[in-house]
What does this fold into?
Amino acid sequence: MDLPKLAIAALGGTVSMQASKPGEGVIPTVSGESLLASIPGLETLARVTVETLGLLPSASQDFEFLLSVLAWAKFQVEQGASGVVITQGTDTLEEAAQFFDYLWPHDTPLVLTGAMRSAAQPGADGPANLLDACRVALAENSRQRGVQVVMNGQIHLARSVRKTDSLALQAFSSPNVGPVGLLLEDHVCYQRPPDPRPLLPLPQQTTHKVAMLEACLSADTLLLENIVALGYDGLVIAGFGAGHVSPDWAKEIEHIARKIPVIIATRTGSGSTARASYGFRGGEMDLIRKGVSMAGFVCPRKARILLWLLIGCQQQEQLERYLSGDTAFNVPTTGF
Ligand code: GLU
It folds into this structure.
């Protein structure tokens, strides 16, 4: 029987980390080939190709790097891959997953995974996560689900997943909706059917900048006052509660929103922003009147990725529709 083709790329992160000397801390040194050696038996499931595209802590990635990884992943599909797996650091995994999901035009699964414990630690989770990710990427029922994150036996949609613990093995969750599936013995089980997702064209430019600021008690307005002059093209606020800021911030935001797109998301970690509940100055009704877009369930970091991508393809006027999850306007992506 002809085995399906599976493409794996290693980008770095704890899953690729080990210490060069005792006591010095771990750094990314483990290649994709070595990661693959940690899961013998995969060759009975697929014809595997593996590449090391980076050895980075995930905080060192940037959007240009992710665009080059995306081009690699698309090429693998064009070459006949039935599934694509990317291993990377968990610190920015949710952002990378969302970035890819907005730009992934294929039905073929693209699965991201990593590890919370490095290879030398007792109970290292990298090999199990990688094997699970490969199973998910190869499963027929994973098709048409866009980009997914597989960690600790759970499958999460890119748009819902967040890193919600800094060091625990169970570091990822999908607030509001829960994981979309799980690994049960050898089976890839989904608890919800695939649903439509918004797609964006590839950015035509990458030099634009979107700032992100978190509202906090008794905060001054110095950074806000200078955001436009500093050359930012968009602003995301991680707001209080259902999308609120202080009156001083609201005043500054009104000026900013006349010049560049401004999104307010919630800093709480789950739940949605409101639209029609609070009427005080700095409340969501006031901010909407001032021209601000409410992020809904989209978290601040993912709202920033959306805005960056929209500005990159000159479609910022579509921001509200994308934030509302309107998928009726999906556009085909062109080759990168
Ligand atoms: N805990 C992180 C990881 O899983 C640390 C480093 C990084 O994100 O690259 O990889």
